[in-house]
Amino acid sequence: MKLIAITACPAGVAHTHMAAAALEASAKKMGLKIKVEKQGAMGIENAIKEKEVSEAEALILAVDTAIAKSERFNNIPTVKVSVAEAVKNPQGLLNQAIELAKK
Amino acid sequence: MKKVLEEAKTHLMTGVSYMLPFVVAGGLLLTIGLLLGGGEQETGYAKKIVETGTLIFSLMVPVMAGYMSYSIADRPGIAPGMVGGLIANEIGAGFLGGIVAGFLAGYIVEGLKKMPMHRYFAQLKPIIVIPLLGAGSVALLMYIIGQPIAALSKELTAWLTSLSGGNLLILGLIIGAMMAFDMGGPVNKVAFAFCVGMLKDGVYAPMAACWIGIMTPPIGLALATRLAPKKFTLAERQSALPSTFMGATGITEGAIPFAVSDPLRVIPSIVIGSAVGGGLALSLGAKAPVPSGGVFVLPFFTKPIMFLIAFTAAILVTAFIVAALKNNIEEEMPITEEA
Question: Which top-level enzyme class is recorded in the Swiss-Prot or TrEMBL entry (chain A) (predicted)?
Answer without folding.
Answer: transferase
